[in-house]
Amino acid sequence: MRMKDKVAIVIGAGQGPGEGMGNGRATAILFAREGARVFSVDRDLASAEETAALIRKDGGDAAAFQADVTKEATLAAAVAECVRRWGRVDVLHYNVGVSLAGGDKNVLEITEAAFDNVSAINLRGFIMAVKHTLPVMQKQKSGVILSISSVAALSSTYPTVAYKTTKMGMIAFTEQIARQNAEAGIRCNIILPGLMDTPMAVDTRAREWGKTREEVAAARDARVPLRRKMGTAWDVANACLFLASDEANFITGVALPVDGGASLRGGD
Predict the structure, then answer these.
(1) Which of 216, 218, 191, 187 is nearest to 201 (CA)?
(2) 163 catalytic, yes or no?
(3) What is the DSSP letter of 159?
(4) 180 sits in which H/E element
(5) Could you report the per-residue pLDDT of 58-73, keeping only the tens digit for each?
(6) Cβ neighbours for 258, distance < 8 A, ≥ 6 positions apart
(7) Residue 266: pLDDT above 60?
(8) Could you give the CA distance from residue 244 to residue 5 in angstroms, rounded to a whole number?
(9) Contact indicator for 93, 10 with CB cutoff of 8 Å
(10) Torsions phi, psi of 227, nearest 5?
């Protein structure tokens, strides 16, 4: 029960269509299994409620809430409702990101609208979620802020521009928040997944590229050094659980790759 008596907000706790489970849903479920009360937040209320229902079916405590990360007011409302319901926020986990589905392209093809869209979801939403959660944690003199970047942030060959730059921006923001809030007992860390077998990562590409899921998955598996097999949402969730728990009590400002060794190849 590594999260016993803790309250966790998971933004992006729902998931899109496709096979398997996404990082946000897996993390919300694992937090609950380890004793946390989970506030399941997503722009798709039905999907957020589905995650909460899975938690409750498993014997956990969860509630769902609808928020659009491109609208600051809805993030503020989510934090306020969590505090109203449970009195505190021990963990904020921001698990929202978009690339191809947001219109991301290479630097010669990217449009202002697409860049602004990806930036608003990946980076600005994270900043605004932290903006409204920090006062709660500062008053408590404790709290953990987690988010999901990507090893794409470290890659000089990543093909699209908005995803890479916003994911690198998330790392810089994490370091800033970690240092500025350390004396208040607030920790801030970020996870960098590599090639993962999730609906967003695989099924979205299959639809965009006109390929089967099996073709996309096989190509991605071949690029992973560790066992030539993508990771799963549970690999990310386990890393989140460790960083959110008291076991990581002396860890802050860290960008942790969960990538099967992919970033060891010089960021390619």
Answers:
(1) 216
(2) yes
(3) S
(4) helix 161-180
(5) 999 999 999 999 999 9
(6) 191, 192, 193, 194, 231, 235, 236, 239
(7) no
(8) 13
(9) yes
(10) 65, 10
- Average pLDDT (234-257) is 98
What average pLDDT does the structure give for the chain?
95
Closest CA to 204 of 103, 123, 132: 103
Q: How many other CB atoms are there within 10 angstroms of residue 36's CB atom?
A: 28
- Locate 48 and state its tokens: 């957020």
Write the pLDDT tens digit of every residue in 101-119: 789 999 999 999 999 999 9
Q: Give dist(CA 34, CA 235) in Å, integer.
A: 16
Place 265 in a pLDDT band, splitting at 50, 70 and 90.
low
Tell me which of 163, 164, 177, 200 is the catalytic residue.
163
Taking the C-alpha atoms of residue 202 and residue 223, their distance in angstroms, rounded to an integer, is: 14
Overall pTM > 0.85: yes
Architecture of domain 7-194+233-257: 3-Layer(aba) Sandwich (3.40)
Phi, psi of 101 (to 5 degrees): -65, -20
Question: Cα(246)–Cα(254) distance, rounded to whole angstroms?
Answer: 15
Among 148, 147, 150, 155, residue whose Cα is nearest residue 264: 155
Position 14 confidence tier, pLDDT thresholds 50, 70, 90: very high
Q: C-alpha 38: how far from its chain's center?
A: 15
The residue extents of the domains of the chain are: 7-194+233-257
The number of residues making up the chain comes to: 268
Widest pairwise Cα distance in the chain: 51
CA distance 20 to 222: 19
Q: What does the DSSP 8-state code read for residue 259?
A: S
